[in-house]
């Protein structure tokens, strides 16, 4: 086990990009987006000195309580059934916890709920597993809708969409909707669509500066897509392409011209990007675990289901708690801050 120096990051980056467990939130570019966190990279090597495991750890200092919080988003990157490598990486997290006086280390690997072997190993290494029924209780969504490409061509994939999705893509094309990747100069228009989406669907949105950092930090591994109808922007998305996975991370749409189905064409164009770059999966990202018709998030699932993928249930979050009392104090402070923000919103402040 070792904590890598920045000079070793290119080696780690190449490892993550080529590993089946790799993902953009484990890239060394990600801390440039999460610029209010510190970061470190833990690595495990085999007897020949080659990397066999790695983990980007974000570090959130909490100076008011003289502690910090460690988080490996969608980490670690390794064979998740290799106990020795997992133990190495956890030892690295422990070292960081001591250095930064951390109360908790959290990880949420991309591992299926059905993978009981990993869950047993995590428990043996001192982690407590947590998850909720809706899937949005943690930092990242626990239910992801994914289209596994399986080497299919664009024509094959298009014919494998549901009849309804094919029809709606064709409606967009017939009406002259145009979808294309654009530069950061379109972020202002994207934000207008994001604000409309947030107000319509009842969620808070990130500031424009966050998306600007994301586009700059991830470079060729991310695109801002915009859909236009009659030369006016009607939908947009920020999508990553990293480690063989294309991920639809943020999406936005206006309240007009929805009848020309621009969102369906936008998804299809992003799927085409995944095919053209040799990806194995197009990840629509989070949906709710509550699939009852009429539930708050059912419409989102219904939209994504039209592309004929599959719903993957992940195992949730795994916490290694170093200082239980401090952890409870931090959790209470977070809950209190959330209640205060909610009260201010209700008061219109």
TrEMBL record:
Alphabetically, the GO molecular function entries are: aminoacyltransferase activity
Question: Which Pfam families does the record match to this protein?
Answer: FemAB
Q: Sorted alphabetically, which keywords does the UniProt record give?
A: Acyltransferase, Cell shape, Cell wall biogenesis/degradation, Peptidoglycan synthesis, Transferase
BP GO terms, sorted: cell wall organization; peptidoglycan biosynthetic process; regulation of cell shape
InterPro entries with a match to the protein in the record: Acyl_CoA_acyltransferase, FEMABX, PG_Glycine_Bridge_Synth
Protein family according to the UniProt entry: Belongs to the FemABX family.
What this protein is called in its record is Peptidoglycan bridge formation glycyltransferase FemA/FemB family protein
> Which species does the entry assign this protein to?
Candidatus Anaerotruncus excrementipullorum
């Amino acid at each position: 086990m070792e904590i890598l120096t920045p000079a070793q990051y290119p080696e780690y980056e190449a490892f993550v990009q080529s590993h089946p467990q790799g993902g953009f939130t484990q890239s060394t570019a990600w801390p440039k987006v999460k610029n209010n966190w510190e970061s470190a990279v833990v690595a495990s090597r085999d007897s020949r000195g080659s990397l066999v495991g790695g983990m980007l750890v974000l570090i959130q200092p909490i100076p008011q309580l003289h502690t910090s919080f460690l988080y490996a988003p969608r980490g670690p990157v390794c064979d998740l059934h290799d106990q020795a490598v997992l133990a190495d990486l956890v030892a690295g997290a422990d070292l960081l916890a001591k250095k930064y006086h951390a109360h908790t280390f959290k990880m949420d690997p991309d591992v299926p709920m059905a993978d009981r072997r990993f869950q047993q190993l995590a428990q043996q290494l001192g982690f407590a597993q947590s998850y909720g029924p809706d899937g949005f209780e943690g930092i990242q969504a626990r239910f992801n809708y994914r289209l596994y490409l399986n080497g299919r061509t664009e024509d094959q994939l298009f014919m494998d969409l549901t009849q309804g999705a094919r029809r709606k893509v064709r409606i967009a094309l017939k009406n002259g909707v145009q979808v294309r990747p654009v530069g950061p100069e379109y972020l202002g228009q994207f934000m207008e669509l994001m604000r409309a989406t947030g107000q319509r669907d009842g969620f808070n949105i990130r500031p424009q500066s966050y998306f600007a950092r994301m586009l700059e930090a991830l470079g060729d591994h991310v695109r801002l897509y915009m859909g236009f109808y009659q030369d006016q922007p009607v939908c947009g998305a920020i999508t990553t392409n990293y480690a063989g996975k294309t991920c639809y991370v943020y999406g936005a749409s206006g309240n007009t011209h929805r009848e020309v189905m621009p969102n369906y064409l936008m998804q299809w164009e992003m799927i085409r990007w995944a095919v053209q770059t040799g990806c194995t999966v197009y990840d629509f990202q989070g949906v709710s675990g509550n699939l009852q018709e009429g539930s708050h998030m059912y419409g989102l699932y219904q939209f994504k289901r039209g592309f004929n993928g599959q719903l993957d249930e992940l195992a949730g979050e795994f916490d290694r708690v170093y200082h239980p009392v401090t952890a409870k104090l931090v959790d209470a402070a977070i809950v209190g801050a959330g209640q205060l923000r909610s009260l201010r919103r209700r008061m219109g402040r």
